[in-house]
What we know:
It is a single chain. The longest helix is centred in the N-terminal third of the chain and has 18 residues, at 18-35. The protein is built from ten helices and no strands. Helix content is 62%, strand content 0%. By secondary structure, it is mainly α.
Amino acid sequence: MARGLEAFAALTGHEGRPELAVQLAAAATVLRETAGLRPLTGARVEAYLAPARRLGDAAVARLWASGRALTTEDAVALALDAPVKPAPSGALPGGKGLNGENPALTVVGRYRVASAPPSSLTQREYQIAELVASGRSNKAIAAELSISHTTAARHVANIMAKLGFNSRTQIAAWMAGQA
């Protein structure tokens, strides 16, 4: 079931529906956790989240939390484009509300963020990822940011763990894709 939701998340992402992709990926993550399966790699989760990043980190976090809150039945219905719940009042047939807003995001806005997506980098980690992508060593990163060499190395290790990478080259390639 989790793999099916992941496939739908990938498909909806390619169809230009990143909000739905994030929700389905989050629902799949819960199913994996419940079944005791290995979690998705950070890079794979990031592939689902990246297109939605244009909405802002807060919106992505709300979408992630709403996806995690879905029951299995609701997640499958969402993946199959079946109505999960009645449309919010004021929704128009084209999927837009009376104010032109996306009703899905309006509904999602009421959720409290339970957890951030697993691949979210902190500002400092993102800054260090940029420096890694520019070819700097841990020693050079440490000197530039006035931190210890060990702290720089720890940040790089955290970045690799969150994104599911095992080399600095992969971080550089990922950063190039972010631009």
